[in-house]
Amino acid sequence: MSNPAATEHKPSFLERLSQSRNGLGFLFMLPAAVFLLCFLTYPLGLGVWLGFTDTSIGRTGMFIGLENYIWLWNDSVFWLSVFNTLLYTFVASVLKFVLGLWLALILNEHMPFKNLFRAIILLPWVVPTVLSALAFWWIFDSQFSIISWVLMEWGIISRPINFLGDPNNARASVIAANVWRGIPFVAISLLAGLQTIPQSLHEAAALDGATSWQRFRRVTLPLLTPIIAVVMTFSVLFTFTDFQLIYVLTRGGPVNATHLMATLSFQRAIPGGQLGEGAAIAVAMIPFLLAAILFSFFGLQRRKWQQGGTD
Known about the structure:
The protein is an all-alpha fold. The chain has 16 helices and no strands.
């Protein structure tokens, strides 16, 4: 006759799952995975599928293979949007990095009212993008621009500058607006990285006779490189996919001079009604975004580069 007390207790599935580190981690990640599956994976898959169809608003399309992409390959407006997007992303990202790093170095020094200045610097990032775009729309107005008025009062120019009506001026204007909005993100992120660098390293370098530039080049920059890689990856992604700022300021004009791939995709898909063509333009953005992500990922794996050496 068996003793019930001696009978081995078999744990249930939930008990085994709670005792397993991998199983518990999977359980915690399951809600996030479901969220990403519903709101990221499905729209992405649907967009890729629409790019291979001739779907339009109000009409279910048919599978047409690569016809949308062949059409885009011969579309001069599409290639102009690619050029605009690359130019916009490169120039704005470089300016945001240089100005953001300079601002972070200043805020990292001992100065009065430092916390107040940090809060003020965050304002361009906190203000809604549409509100910022409307403010810049008035600043760049062809008749009532404050910039033109000041320059005319100083006798530098004789008539108002056509900021948003001239192609080159329009490109420079939207880049300036993006830089103004994006600097706080870069500056505060790099400032957080600067504060993790031990002060003893700078003191030791100063005792060895290193100048301010040498300390920055040999101590600050190598230790800040991983943060720079992550911050600039996000900055490039945000800039490359920018839509609201361009759409409110110029809607892609004049003569498509400020059309980015994101705004052209929206224009072709929603106002133009060609969902398949718009989706194809959006899908064409993916290789550029993957290139930016992979550049940052492999850059972070290069330990010598992080430490200021050469590979």
